[in-house]
Design brief:
Elements: H1 2-30, H2 33-138
């Protein structure tokens, strides 16, 4: 789009140059009286050329501003998405931490239960041995 605007500007300048050449030819043919009118006409053409150049520049600046606004909006949306992802990861990490703590606690309870069971079995074995010895002595 920017190159199309530049081409339009060049085309407009070429038309102005051609018009100036035509004006110069007419002046030669018509004489001095026409020179005053042609000066006014040339001034008008010059102003029109400047106006077209300014409009093309304004259009380019407007397009650049629109692109900058779109880029800013894209960056804002990316940041929002990243924040959501980060919040999700933090929540998952917190949940995983709680689950890990619970599993660690369950493991500790299981180890304690296993140790307690081992002690009871040892006591039961010792009690059984004592009972057997007592029975043997009784016979």
């Amino acid at each position: 789009q920017l190159s199309a605007r530049s081409e339009e500007l060049e085309q407009a300048r070429a038309e102005v140059r051609k018009a100036k050449e035509e004006v110069a030819q007419v002046l030669k043919q018509k004489g001095v009286a026409m020179r005053e009118n042609s000066a006014s006409y040339e001034q008008t053409l010059k102003l029109q050329t400047e106006q077209k150049a300014l409009q093309a520049e304004k259009d380019i600046v407007s397009e650049e501003r629109d692109m900058a606004v779109k880029e800013r909006d894209r960056i804002v949306m990316d940041n929002v998405q990243l924040k959501k992802s980060l919040d999700t990861l933090k929540a998952q990490r917190k949940k995983d931490g709680r689950e890990f703590s619970m599993m660690k606690l369950m493991l500790e309870k299981a180890r304690h239960s296993t140790e307690e069971l081992g002690r009871r079995q040892a006591q039961d074995k010792a009690g059984r041995r004592q009972l057997e010895e007592t029975l043997e002595e009784a016979h």
